[in-house]
Amino acid sequence: MGLDEYIPSSDWIDESWWTSAEQVKEASEQYRKQASKAAAWIKRTLQDEKKAKTYDMLLAGFLVKIIVNEKYNVLLDSLITLIHSWYPSNFILGVMSIVYPDISNKIRELINKEKVNFNYKSKDLIIFEDKTLDPQVKNRINNWIEDIVDSVSIEYSSIMTKRLINYLETDERIINFIANVFIFFLNSINIKIEASKAKNIAEFIVGEVLSKVKKLKLEEI
Predict the structure, then answer these.
(1) Under 8 Å CB-to-CB from 93, ≥6 apart: which residues?
(2) Confidence class of residue 45 from pLDDT cuts 50, 70 and 90?
(3) Residue 82: domain span
(4) Banded model confidence at residue 49, pLDDT cuts 50, 70, 90
(5) What are the CA-CA distances from residue 102 to residues 94, 107, 146, 153 (Å)?
(6) In terms of C-beta density within 10 A (0-12 exposed, 13-18 middle, 19 or more buried), how is residue 221 classed?
(7) Residue 149, domain member (yes or no)
(8) Alpha-carbon distance 52 to 167, whole Å?
(9) Are 164 and 87 in contact (CB under 8 A)?
(10) 153, 212 contact by CB (below 8 A)
(11) Beta-strand (E) ranges in the chain?
Protein backbone atom coordinates (compact mmCIF):
# COMPACT_ATOMS: atom_id res chain seq x y z
CA MET A 1 0.00 0.00 0.00
CA GLY A 2 1.46 3.35 -1.07
CA LEU A 3 0.95 6.75 0.46
CA ASP A 4 -1.19 7.81 -2.53
CA GLU A 5 -3.59 4.98 -1.79
CA TYR A 6 -4.19 6.08 1.78
CA ILE A 7 -7.70 7.45 2.25
CA PRO A 8 -8.56 8.76 5.76
CA SER A 9 -11.74 7.37 7.27
CA SER A 10 -14.72 9.69 7.12
CA ASP A 11 -15.08 9.84 10.89
CA TRP A 12 -11.55 11.34 11.14
CA ILE A 13 -12.43 14.20 8.75
CA ASP A 14 -14.81 16.95 9.73
CA GLU A 15 -15.25 18.65 6.35
CA SER A 16 -16.97 21.66 7.85
CA TRP A 17 -13.75 22.42 9.77
CA TRP A 18 -11.99 23.31 6.54
CA THR A 19 -14.65 25.70 5.29
CA SER A 20 -13.28 28.65 7.25
CA ALA A 21 -10.27 30.49 5.84
CA GLU A 22 -9.49 31.73 9.35
CA GLN A 23 -9.39 28.17 10.66
CA VAL A 24 -7.10 27.15 7.84
CA LYS A 25 -4.79 30.03 8.69
CA GLU A 26 -4.87 29.08 12.38
CA ALA A 27 -4.01 25.47 11.57
CA SER A 28 -1.10 26.62 9.44
CA GLU A 29 0.22 28.83 12.22
CA GLN A 30 -0.13 26.02 14.74
CA TYR A 31 1.82 23.73 12.41
CA ARG A 32 4.58 26.31 12.04
CA LYS A 33 4.82 26.72 15.82
CA GLN A 34 5.07 22.97 16.31
CA ALA A 35 7.66 22.64 13.55
CA SER A 36 9.66 25.51 15.05
CA LYS A 37 9.60 23.89 18.49
CA ALA A 38 10.68 20.56 17.02
CA ALA A 39 13.55 22.17 15.13
CA ALA A 40 14.69 24.00 18.27
CA TRP A 41 14.54 20.75 20.28
CA ILE A 42 16.65 18.93 17.69
CA LYS A 43 19.19 21.76 17.63
CA ARG A 44 19.50 21.83 21.44
CA THR A 45 19.80 18.05 21.60
CA LEU A 46 22.56 17.99 18.99
CA GLN A 47 24.44 20.73 20.83
CA ASP A 48 23.99 18.86 24.08
CA GLU A 49 25.21 15.59 22.57
CA LYS A 50 28.25 17.34 21.14
CA LYS A 51 29.23 18.53 24.63
CA ALA A 52 28.80 15.02 26.03
CA LYS A 53 30.81 13.45 23.20
CA THR A 54 33.72 15.83 23.87
CA TYR A 55 34.13 14.29 27.31
CA ASP A 56 33.51 10.79 25.96
CA MET A 57 36.49 11.19 23.63
CA LEU A 58 38.63 12.63 26.41
CA LEU A 59 37.75 9.74 28.71
CA ALA A 60 38.44 7.21 25.95
CA GLY A 61 41.93 8.63 25.45
CA PHE A 62 42.80 8.50 29.14
CA LEU A 63 41.14 5.11 29.57
CA VAL A 64 43.53 3.50 27.10
CA LYS A 65 46.50 4.83 29.09
CA ILE A 66 44.98 3.66 32.37
CA ILE A 67 44.22 0.14 31.09
CA VAL A 68 47.75 -0.51 29.86
CA ASN A 69 49.21 0.60 33.21
CA GLU A 70 48.93 -2.34 35.59
CA LYS A 71 48.99 -0.21 38.72
CA TYR A 72 45.39 0.83 37.99
CA ASN A 73 44.10 -2.74 37.70
CA VAL A 74 42.46 -2.61 41.13
CA LEU A 75 40.18 0.20 39.93
CA LEU A 76 39.30 -1.15 36.50
CA ASP A 77 36.30 -3.34 37.39
CA SER A 78 34.37 -0.56 39.11
CA LEU A 79 35.49 1.98 36.50
CA ILE A 80 34.29 -0.13 33.58
CA THR A 81 31.02 -0.87 35.41
CA LEU A 82 30.26 2.85 35.67
CA ILE A 83 31.13 3.39 32.02
CA HIS A 84 28.83 0.54 30.98
CA SER A 85 26.09 2.07 33.15
CA TRP A 86 26.40 5.30 31.11
CA TYR A 87 27.69 7.47 33.90
CA PRO A 88 28.62 10.90 32.46
CA SER A 89 32.22 10.89 31.26
CA ASN A 90 33.02 14.31 32.72
CA PHE A 91 32.17 13.09 36.22
CA ILE A 92 34.21 9.89 35.87
CA LEU A 93 37.16 11.98 34.66
CA GLY A 94 36.82 14.27 37.67
CA VAL A 95 36.88 11.36 40.12
CA MET A 96 39.87 9.72 38.43
CA SER A 97 41.82 12.98 38.32
CA ILE A 98 43.38 12.46 41.75
CA VAL A 99 45.15 9.28 40.63
CA TYR A 100 45.91 10.46 37.10
CA PRO A 101 47.29 14.04 37.19
CA ASP A 102 47.04 14.50 33.41
CA ILE A 103 43.26 14.41 33.75
CA SER A 104 43.37 16.97 36.54
CA ASN A 105 45.59 19.25 34.50
CA LYS A 106 43.30 18.97 31.48
CA ILE A 107 40.28 19.99 33.56
CA ARG A 108 42.22 22.88 35.09
CA GLU A 109 43.48 23.96 31.70
CA LEU A 110 39.89 24.41 30.51
CA ILE A 111 39.24 27.03 33.20
CA ASN A 112 42.70 28.58 33.34
CA LYS A 113 43.72 27.18 36.72
CA GLU A 114 47.28 26.34 37.66
CA LYS A 115 48.41 22.80 36.96
CA VAL A 116 48.75 20.31 39.77
CA ASN A 117 52.19 20.21 41.36
CA PHE A 118 52.23 17.30 43.78
CA ASN A 119 55.25 15.15 44.59
CA TYR A 120 54.58 14.12 48.18
CA LYS A 121 55.12 10.58 49.46
CA SER A 122 55.54 9.59 53.10
CA LYS A 123 58.69 7.62 53.92
CA ASP A 124 56.82 5.66 56.56
CA LEU A 125 53.28 4.31 56.53
CA ILE A 126 51.04 6.76 58.35
CA ILE A 127 47.37 6.74 59.34
CA PHE A 128 45.05 9.29 57.76
CA GLU A 129 44.04 11.95 60.26
CA ASP A 130 42.42 15.21 59.23
CA LYS A 131 44.14 17.33 61.86
CA THR A 132 47.66 16.01 61.28
CA LEU A 133 47.49 15.63 57.51
CA ASP A 134 50.41 17.15 55.64
CA PRO A 135 49.38 20.49 54.01
CA GLN A 136 50.50 19.22 50.59
CA VAL A 137 48.15 16.25 50.82
CA LYS A 138 45.30 18.35 52.16
CA ASN A 139 45.75 20.81 49.32
CA ARG A 140 45.78 18.00 46.75
CA ILE A 141 42.53 16.59 48.14
CA ASN A 142 40.91 20.04 48.07
CA ASN A 143 42.05 20.49 44.46
CA TRP A 144 40.60 17.08 43.62
CA ILE A 145 37.18 18.05 44.98
CA GLU A 146 37.39 21.29 43.00
CA ASP A 147 38.27 19.34 39.86
CA ILE A 148 35.28 17.03 40.27
CA VAL A 149 32.91 19.96 40.74
CA ASP A 150 34.48 21.87 37.84
CA SER A 151 34.32 18.85 35.55
CA VAL A 152 30.54 18.66 35.84
CA SER A 153 29.88 22.38 35.54
CA ILE A 154 32.01 23.56 32.58
CA GLU A 155 30.61 22.91 29.11
CA TYR A 156 28.09 20.60 30.70
CA SER A 157 25.46 18.55 28.91
CA SER A 158 21.90 19.04 30.17
CA ILE A 159 20.98 15.47 29.27
CA MET A 160 23.97 13.93 31.05
CA THR A 161 23.69 16.28 34.03
CA LYS A 162 20.11 15.19 34.65
CA ARG A 163 21.28 11.59 34.46
CA LEU A 164 24.11 12.36 36.89
CA ILE A 165 21.73 13.92 39.42
CA ASN A 166 19.60 10.79 39.33
CA TYR A 167 22.62 8.53 39.80
CA LEU A 168 24.10 10.57 42.64
CA GLU A 169 20.79 10.48 44.49
CA THR A 170 20.08 6.78 44.03
CA ASP A 171 23.18 4.72 43.21
CA GLU A 172 25.35 3.57 46.09
CA ARG A 173 28.01 2.30 43.68
CA ILE A 174 29.30 5.80 43.07
CA ILE A 175 30.05 6.27 46.78
CA ASN A 176 32.08 3.07 46.76
CA PHE A 177 33.88 4.06 43.57
CA ILE A 178 34.94 7.46 44.90
CA ALA A 179 36.01 5.88 48.19
CA ASN A 180 38.08 3.25 46.37
CA VAL A 181 39.79 5.88 44.20
CA PHE A 182 40.59 7.91 47.32
CA ILE A 183 41.99 4.85 49.11
CA PHE A 184 44.08 4.05 46.03
CA PHE A 185 45.49 7.58 45.98
CA LEU A 186 46.40 7.53 49.67
CA ASN A 187 47.99 4.08 49.40
CA SER A 188 50.16 5.39 46.55
CA ILE A 189 51.66 8.01 48.90
CA ASN A 190 51.95 5.60 51.85
CA ILE A 191 48.92 6.74 53.83
CA LYS A 192 46.36 4.29 55.20
CA ILE A 193 42.72 5.22 55.72
CA GLU A 194 39.81 3.27 57.17
CA ALA A 195 37.22 2.28 54.57
CA SER A 196 34.44 3.89 56.63
CA LYS A 197 36.28 7.21 56.72
CA ALA A 198 36.96 7.08 52.98
CA LYS A 199 33.26 6.42 52.42
CA ASN A 200 32.33 9.43 54.58
CA ILE A 201 34.57 11.64 52.45
CA ALA A 202 33.02 10.15 49.29
CA GLU A 203 29.54 11.00 50.60
CA PHE A 204 30.70 14.56 51.30
CA ILE A 205 31.99 14.87 47.72
CA VAL A 206 28.71 13.57 46.29
CA GLY A 207 26.86 16.17 48.36
CA GLU A 208 29.12 18.93 47.03
CA VAL A 209 28.62 17.82 43.43
CA LEU A 210 24.85 17.56 43.84
CA SER A 211 24.71 21.03 45.36
CA LYS A 212 26.58 22.41 42.35
CA VAL A 213 24.78 20.62 39.53
CA LYS A 214 21.33 21.38 40.94
CA LYS A 215 22.15 25.07 40.56
CA LEU A 216 23.08 24.72 36.90
CA LYS A 217 20.68 26.01 34.28
CA LEU A 218 19.52 22.88 32.50
CA GLU A 219 17.61 23.05 29.25
CA GLU A 220 14.36 21.13 28.94
CA ILE A 221 15.18 18.60 26.22
Answers:
(1) 55, 58, 59, 62, 103, 106, 107, 151
(2) very low
(3) 24-213
(4) low
(5) 11, 9, 15, 19
(6) middle
(7) yes
(8) 16
(9) yes
(10) yes
(11) 126-127, 191-192
